[in-house]
Amino acid sequence: MKNAFYAQSGGVTSVINCSAYGLFNGFKKHFPNSNIFVGKNGIVGLIEDEIYDLNKTQKSLDLLLDSPGGMFGSCRYKLPDPESESSFYEKIFKKFEDRNIGYFFYNGGNDSADTCLKIHQAAKILNFDLCAIAIPKTIDNDLAVTDNCPGFGSVAKYIAISAKEASLDIKSMCKTSTKVFILEVMGRHAGWIAAAGELANQNGNHVHKILLPEVPFDETKFLNGVSNDVDKDGFSVVIASEGLKNSSGELYSNSREKDSFGHAQLGGLAPKLAELVNKNLNIKYHWSVSDYLQRSARHISSKTDVEQAIAVGEIAANMAVEAKSGYMPIIKRLGNEPYKWEIDFGDLNEIANKEKVLPDNFISNCGFRITDEGISYLSPLIQGESYPKYKNGLPSYEQLDLHF
Amino acid sequence: MKNAFYAQSGGVTSVINCSAYGLFNGFKKHFPNSNIFVGKNGIVGLIEDEIYDLNKTQKSLDLLLDSPGGMFGSCRYKLPDPESESSFYEKIFKKFEDRNIGYFFYNGGNDSADTCLKIHQAAKILNFDLCAIAIPKTIDNDLAVTDNCPGFGSVAKYIAISAKEASLDIKSMCKTSTKVFILEVMGRHAGWIAAAGELANQNGNHVHKILLPEVPFDETKFLNGVSNDVDKDGFSVVIASEGLKNSSGELYSNSREKDSFGHAQLGGLAPKLAELVNKNLNIKYHWSVSDYLQRSARHISSKTDVEQAIAVGEIAANMAVEAKSGYMPIIKRLGNEPYKWEIDFGDLNEIANKEKVLPDNFISNCGFRITDEGISYLSPLIQGESYPKYKNGLPSYEQLDLHF
Question: How close A45 gets to chain B, by Cα (Å)?
Answer without folding.
Answer: 10
